[in-house]
Amino acid sequence: MCELIKRGQVETTWYCNFVCSNQERKKEKNLWVGLMLYTQNTHRLLVVSTECSPSNCQLPSCYCPGTAIPNNMPVSSVPQMVMLTFDDEVSAAFYGYYQRLFRPGRYNPNGCPVRGCLFVSGSGTTYDLVYPLYALGVEIASHSVSHRFPHTWWSGASYKDFVDEAKGMRDNLINQAGVPRSAIKGFRVPFLQLGSDNMYSALYDSGFE
After folding, report:
1. Are residues 128 and 163 in contact, defined by beta-carbon separation less than 8 angstroms?
2. 65: closest CA among 28, 13, 23, 36?
3. Residue 74 included in any domain
4. 30 pLDDT band (50/70/90 cuts)?
5. For residues 19 and 34, what is the distance between their CA atoms, to the nearest angstrom?
6. Cα(first)–Cα(last) distance of the chain, in Å?
7. By residue range, what is the domain housing residue 182?
8. What is the dihedral of CA 20, 24, 27, 33, to 10 degrees?
9. pTM here?
């Protein structure tokens, strides 16, 4: 059986890792699930390891990895989910492409129009071009004000840095592009360079979803 070990602790975040020998990996036909319960009062981590099966893992909150299709759905009826997202500026250089891509008349098999999400950064963006895309049904999200270099800066950015960048860009989209506050739910960090607890805390406190 795999051994679940605690690698470290950052505030109330626990990092764990499954360690298996090659022989154990060959013998195991199923993944092992670690159920972790964090008790704030005692700062104890309770771990229960068990084999993933329909008896302890059920939809919609859990599903065991494998090739079986949920709910015995026919292969021909299984939808293929494709997410269209774009990063960085909205400017004249890309505006025509977005209009063609999301033009009226393009529909998914279920009848819904083809849409996507633009993670907009402040550098280079022409804000007058953002709202027409939002009006087409394209989701607009924050991608930072500066999109600053180097990419490693984001891994060490402070709580205030992330508030200024993420919330600041949302404010720009509201005030300069006219996108409603309620419509801007997401943030994508530049270069996908995660910023530890500072980033998550700043996004949570700023009301990102």
Report:
1. no
2. 28
3. no
4. very low
5. 12
6. 37
7. 85-205
8. -40
9. 0.68
